[in-house]
Prior knowledge:
Layout (H helix, E strand, L loop, with lengths): L1 H29 L3 E10 L5 E10 L2 E12 L12 E4 L2 H4 L1 E7 L5 E7 L5 E4 L9 E7 L1 H6 L2
Parallel strand pairs: 6-8
Antiparallel strand pairs: 1-2, 2-3, 3-4, 4-7, 5-6
Amino acid sequence: MHKVVKEIGLFVVAPLAILGGLTAWMFAATAQPCSNAITQQVASPDGRFSAVVFVRSCTTAPGFSSNISILAKDGFLADGPGNLFASDGHPEQLGFSLQWQSTGKDSLQLNVASKIRGTVLHADSVWSANPNITATYQLGADFAASKP
Length: 148
C-alpha cells in the first residue's frame, strides 16, 4: 500500500506541481511591464492628426513618465513611449498645454508648454513619421517667462 501511494505521488502530484509552476511562469512572462493612460488629446486644425498626452507607468521602474505622441486620425496609441516627447513626472503634475498651428499648405506645428519642467528624456523637433509636422517646447521656467 505504501508503494502505491508513493507511485501516485510520483506520477500524479509531481507532474501537476511542474505544470502549475510552468503556468505561473508563463503568466509572469506575458504580463505587461508597462501601461499607458491617455490624459489629454488635441486634434490638429485639419483633423488629420491628433496629439495625445499620456502617462506611462512601468512595473520595472518606480514613478511615471509623461509622453506625447502624434497619431493619424484613426490611429491608436501603441504600447511604448511617446513618439514625439517623453519626460519624467505625471502629466497632471507638469501641466501640459498643447496648441496646433498651421504653418503652410501641408505643414503643421505643435506647440507644447508645461508649467513645470521634468527631466526630459527626449523631445523631437520633427515628427519622424511626417517631416511636415514640427514641434516647439516651452517647459518650466521658460513657459513662465514667456507669459505676458
